[in-house]
Amino acid sequence: MTKYIFALIFFSSCTFKKGHPPKNQEREPFKILKEVVSPDKRVKAVLIENYGGATVANSFLVLLMRPNEIVEEDNFNLSIFTSDNCSDLDIAWKYNNDFSITFCYGRVFHFTNFWSDAQIDNWQYNVHINLIEGKCKN
Question: Does residue 27 carry a pLDDT above 80?
Answer without folding.
Answer: no
